[in-house]
Write a structure and sequence with these properties.
Order of helices and strands of chain B: EHEHEHEHHEHEHEEEEHEEHEHEHH
Radius of gyration of chain B: 19 Å
CATH architecture of the largest domain in chain A: 2-Layer Sandwich
Largest interface: A-B, 12 and 9 residues
Order of helices and strands of chain A: EEEEEEEEHHHHHEHHEEEEEEHEEEEHH
CATH topology of the largest domain in chain A: Chloramphenicol Acetyltransferase
Oligomer: heterodimer
Number of helices of chain A: 10
Number of domains of chain A: 3
Shape of chain B: globular
Largest sheet of chain B: 7 strands, mixed
CATH superfamily of the largest domain in chain A: Chloramphenicol acetyltransferase-like domain
CATH superfamily of the largest domain in chain B: Thiamin diphosphate (ThDP)-binding fold, Pyr/PP domains
Structural class of chain A: alpha+beta
Distance between the termini of chain A: 59 Å
Strand content of chain B: 15-25%
CATH architecture of the largest domain in chain B: 3-Layer(aba) Sandwich
CATH class of the largest domain in chain A: Alpha Beta
Number of strands of chain B: 14
Structural class of chain B: alpha/beta
CATH topology of the largest domain in chain B: Rossmann fold
Helix content of chain A: 25-40%
Strand content of chain A: 25-35%
Number of strands of chain A: 19
Distance between the termini of chain B: 41 Å
Chain lengths: 412, 325
């Protein structure tokens, strides 16, 4: 029976096989992982659709295919496979053995196949080995997309190969003095995204200091009742999110993406909130239409996203569609953080610790010094999209809202 | 530079060498007064007379026995076997005696002779007069094997064969006798064991011999014009010695080898080249090696059947288009 690329979410049309946990000839089960799939930032474990033996792998690790595409074939116990029924030679060879005895008989090294499963010619194998290339990443121009020598040569002459050649040679860190921790898929995706974002967007950091006195008063007024009613503490973050959503209405260009030479301004405000997974990775579930929510709804949505992130309950659609991102390191007492833009967005806000500080307060009777809860709001923006004055005016507006809004009334 | 036919180039080469060296003699059936059954030796009898150009009885063994004896005693004979199929009755003297004399006498005796013969099909002569048997000779240690595809190569290579101190089997493809080509004026001596690159292309290397060479060139033009496939064409010219350097270099460039052989498929010369290529430059290959040959059957005499069995330019094009990518 066919194993297909599963639907990863309503808006997702393709998925990438990140790793195969079984090789051809292995027994597979509905209770065991067969392969992992990734798309954007979600990684999903896929068990076999039935008990049986893995007969053929059609889509190698690292390859992206549309949802519904056959990625593997398994043979159920007692199932008869017709030799020649569109199976590859390797599968035909494995078929009788697999059906008779589900033991590891044939192993197909995906490294010796191209993206379309064609075996690599000797010339291609040599070129790939000599230049440390990934054959799956090079488009083939032969029959059935077969990767030919001239495709590899063309690839080598293109910028792609130059870039990969610029990668430093792997260092040999192995030894008693080190512990080598392989990147998991999330780490790899994060690493790739961060490098790509910095390479794509000229980042500019701006920060304002905001006085959270009004927020703090409103919060303390309802704190106990809120905790009792909702089951979690009301933090500063929903207030910042609310202020930000209001400011975005006046400065919509921060809620945007760049497409070639166009600024694509989003009409919806979908806030991605970065969540740390107990030091084991970072995800940013998206709150859709955050600007349509009340403060209370925002607080619940933020709480819900981080809870589900930490318990690995997020769905693929929770990661898509973000238009602006907030990153919050304040819990660890940081003063200021320069965040990296969540591509393809054009701006990201970091909220840091809100601490009591002596503040000069201007009154009609003259200046006085008071103790106020103060925090820094730092925004990195893509200077291709907007300029410093626009960004500063936006930040200033966020601060104004935080400092002057009647938050007690909002919470009432 | 004169335009000659393939058959005229044969007579020119023999005449050139007989004028230069009095030890060169020529013998065979109907080669003298009649000028050869394929008219490839016209004029030699008249110029050099019945002592140096000898008509013989119909006995291939006698012809080669006489050639061997005269070579052992200081002459440089050229012997003609009218149809290469008839070599079968000569095999003891060719494979056991002529090919082994230098080795078995420890180099005391050389065998400077040439056995010319009309080889191959395409002329409606039937299964016993149409065989392409260059691979029979190729597998005997001690023989050199040459098979030219053009008038210029006939003249230059035949002259080189006559001057060579060891026995050379010189296969003239009988369907090529009427073809014309320019041949440089004056003395012409080529080098045995050198292949020629006739066409340069980046996609596939076609290696061909004798009558298959013009068909391979025609196929290459068609592949380029109709299918966007650019083929290199190598004319092997000499099976022993074999110019492996040129063949390996040209196959390395494209990563694809196609041999076009008139001999029947089993143990054809292309199998040897395929084997050498797989041994020496496996890691340069970008796809399977392909052999286009006459099938392993006696060659039919009927026009349509003979045409259907031998590799044609159309078949070369078709097989390459279907299999090369």
């Amino acid at each position: 029976m066919d194993v297909i690329m599963p639907q990863l979410g309503e808006t997702v049309s393709e998925g990438t096989v990140s790793v195969w946990h079984k090789t051809i000839g292995d027994a597979v089960s509905t209770k065991e992982r067969l392969f992992d799939v990734s798309s954007d930032k979600v990684e999903m474990e896929v068990p076999a659709p039935a008990e049986g033996t893995l007969l053929e792998i059609r889509v190698g690790a690292g390859v992206t295919v549309p949802v519904g595409e056959v990625v593997a074939i398994i043979v159920r116990e007692g199932e008869v496979i017709e030799v020649g029924a569109g199976l590859s030679e390797a599968a035909e060879e494995a078929a009788p053995k697999a059906a008779a005895a589900p033991v590891r008989e044939v192993s197909v090294k995906s490294a010796n196949r191209d993206a379309n499963g064609n075996p690599l010619s000797p010339a291609v194998r040599r070129l790939v080995a000599e230049n440390s290339l990934d054959p799956v990443a090079i488009a083939g121009s032969g029959l059935n997309g077969r990767l030919k020598k001239k495709d590899v040569l063309a690839h080598l002459n293109s910028g792609a190969a130059v870039r990969s050649a610029l990668k430093p040679a792997p260092l040999d860190f192995a030894g008693e003095d080190t512990e080598v921790i392989p990147f998991n898929n999330l780490r790899k995706l994060t690493a790739e995204h961060m490098v790509r974002s910095k390479a794509t967007s000229p980042h500019v950091l701006q920060a304002v200091e905001a006085d959270f006195a009004r927020v703090a008063r409103a919060r303390s007024g309802v704190s106990a009742a809120w905790k009792k009613r909702e089951g979690f503490s009301l933090t500063y973050l929903p207030f910042i999110a609310k202020a930000l959503c209001e400011a975005v209405r006046e400065f919509p260009h921060v809620n945007a993406a760049i497409d070639d030479e166009n600024l694509v301004v989003f009409r919806r405000v979908n806030l991605a909130i970065a969540v740390d997974l107990d030091f084991d990775g970072l995800v940013a579930p998206v709150i859709k239409d955050a600007d349509q929510m009340s403060l209370q709804e925002l607080a619940r949505a933020i709480r819900d996203g981080s809870e589900r992130a930490r318990t690995n309950q997020l769905k693929p659609e929770d990661f898509t569609g973000g238009t602006y991102t907030i990153s919050n390191s304040g819990v660890f007492g940081t003063m200021i953080t320069a965040p990296i833009i969540n591509q393809p967005q054009v701006a990201i806000l970091s909220t840091d610790a809100i601490t009591k500080k002596p503040v000069v307060i201007e009154t009609e009777d003259g200046d006085t010094i008071g103790i106020r809860p103060v925090g820094v709001l730092a925004q990195s923006f893509d200077h291709r999209a907007i300029d410093g004055a626009y960004s500063a005016a936006f930040l200033n507006r966020v601060r104004d809202i935080i400092q002057t809004k009647d938050w007690a009334a909002v919470l009432a | 530079m004169a335009e000659l036919t393939y058959r005229e180039a044969v007579a020119e080469a023999i005449a050139q060498e007989m004028r230069r060296d009095e030890d060169v003699v020529f013998l065979g059936e109907d080669i003298g007064a009649a000028g050869g059954v394929f008219k490839a030796t016209v004029g030699l009898f008249k110029e050099f007379g019945p002592v140096r150009v000898r008509d013989t009885p119909i006995s291939e063994q006698a012809i080669l026995g006489a050639a061997m004896g005269s070579a052992m005693t200081g002459l440089k004979p050229i012997a003609e076997i009218m149809f290469s199929d008839f070599l079968a009755v000569c095999w003891d003297i060719v494979a056991n005696e002529i090919a082994k004399a230098r080795y078995m006498t420890g180099g005391q005796m050389s065998m400077p002779l040439v056995i010319r013969t009309a080889n191959g099909g395409g002329s409606r002569f039937g299964a016993q007069h149409s065989q392409s048997v260059e691979n029979w000779a190729m597998m005997v240690p001690g023989l050199k094997v040459v098979a030219p595809s053009s008038p210029a190569d006939v003249k230059g290579l035949l002259a080189a064969a006559i001057r060579d101190p060891d026995p050379v089997m010189f296969f003239e493809q009988k369907s090529l006798y009427p073809i014309k080509g320019f041949v440089p004026d004056g003395e012409l001596v080529d080098v045995l064991g050198t292949a020629k690159v006739l066409r340069d292309g980046g996609d596939v290397t076609i290696v061909a011999l004798a009558a298959m060479v013009p068909r391979a060139v025609k196929a290459a033009e068609e592949l380029s014009a109709q299918h966007g496939i650019e083929a290199t064409v190598v004319d092997v010219r000499s099976l022993v010695p074999l110019d492996t350097q040129t063949i390996l270099r040209e196959v390395s460039k494209t990563g694809r080898l196609v041999t076009v052989e008139e001999n029947p498929r089993l143990c054809g010369w292309g199998a040897e080249i395929a084997s050498i290529v797989a041994d020496e430059i496996f890691w340069d290959l970008d796809g399977p090696i392909m052999r286009i040959t006459t099938p392993h059957i006696p060659l039919p005499a009927a026009d349509e059947l003979e045409d259907a069995t031998m590799p044609s330019a159309e078949r070369i094009v078709r097989e390459i288009v279907e299999n090369i990518d």
